[in-house]
Backbone:
């Protein structure tokens, strides 16, 4: 069974340990020489009603993904283990 990256972006990520919604997949990290999917990226929660950006991103390793369903992706990982620092906008 294959899944396109465009199809992954429409899926919500849910942690099976506590049932918490982590967000929607925004990007996929791929190992260049092999073409293997290494991780999926999920934007962190929004700050102040979504107007001031996100509080960082979650990099969820592919090994933590337990099930890819038609609407959701179930993962087994604690969000604090995979949190990336917020990106700073480039300076001119």
Residues:
């Amino acid at each position: 069974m294959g899944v396109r990256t465009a199809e992954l972006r429409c899926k919500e990520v849910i942690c099976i340990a506590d049932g918490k919604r982590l967000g929607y997949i925004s990007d996929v990290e791929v190992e260049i020489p092999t073409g293997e999917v290494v991780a999926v990226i999920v934007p962190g929660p929004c700050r102040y009603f979504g107007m001031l950006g996100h509080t960082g991103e979650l990099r969820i390793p592919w090994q933590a993904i337990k099930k890819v369903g038609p609407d959701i992706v179930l993962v087994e990982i604690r969000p604090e283990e995979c949190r990336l620092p917020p990106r700073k906008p480039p300076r001119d």
Summary: DSSP finds one helix and eight strands in the chain.
